[in-house]
Amino acid sequence: MGSGSTASIAIRLMGAKVRGGMRIVGIATSRDSEILGRSVGIEIGELKDHPVVDLTIDGADEVDPKLNLIKGLGGALVREKIVASATKVVIIVVDESKLVEHLGQKSPLPVEIVRFAHHSTMRALERLGCVPKLRMRDGEVFVTDNGNYIADCRFEMIENPRKLESVINLIPGVVDNGLFVGLAHKVIVASKDGIRVMGKK
Question: Do residues 88 and 18 share a domain?
Fold first, then answer.
């Protein structure tokens, strides 16, 4: 079960299926998703008991033509990536405004970083050519469910998402980043003209 506004709609629809008799075990990617899932009657499990997930439904902040994603504006990118990596089929649901020619076109890249010496980590991120900004919420530094900070990194263009994903994750103090490369199997796009499905080529 993904996180964010789009995923919450899917969770409520799955809850309706449960009330109709379907048995679903949900692996929540955030505390908010877990709370919502329980409230609509979904049994909540853990990856240690269900190491292979059949289906993940989630949203994204950007989608490129190769189905690479930027995720994490909701703050749950690390758990979302862990669950997506353990999933047989990952379906992403977005509206057409999330489609881009290249990643970084509209959205900053969220990078989850540990609190200790986070200024040093952000300076290392800046040397990659981005402008990192510590995420704030309600006048306070935003803290993830994992107890970490998020640096929102504005790149002019992300030409090689796979390489950048690896380079960022080699920086001491980085937990993970919001580049989801090769994880999405299908992207369902809603627009004023209807629904279309993008699949891996």
Answer: yes
112 catalytic? Reply is: no
For 41-68, what is the mean pLDDT? 96
User: Cα 129 vs. chain centroid, distance in angstroms?
Assistant: 23
Q: Is 45 helix (H, G, I), strand (E, B) or coil?
A: coil
User: How many domains are there within the chain?
Assistant: 2
The boundaries of the domain holding residue 17 are 5-100+181-199
Average pLDDT over residues 101-113: 97
**Per-residue exposure over 68-100, b if at least 16 CB sit within 10 Å of its own CB, e if not:** bbbbbbbbbbbbbbebbeebeebbbbbeeebbb
The answer to whether the beta carbons of residues 169 and 128 sit under 8 Å apart is no
Residues 93 and 186 in one domain: yes
- The SS3 call for residue 186 is strand
Claim to verify: residue 173 and residue 187 sit in the same structural domain: no
Categorize the per-residue pLDDT at 201 as very low, low, confident or very high, splitting at 50, 70 and 90.
low
Token pair listed for 100: 């881009």
Q: Which of 34, 46, 62, 80 is catalytic?
A: 80
Please indicate, yes or no, whether residues 116 and 156 belong to a single structural domain of this protein. Answer: yes
Residue 192 belongs to domain with CATH number: 3.40.50.1360
Q: For residue 143, is pLDDT > 80? A: yes
Tell me what pLDDT residue 200 has: 79
For residue 164, what pLDDT is reported?
98
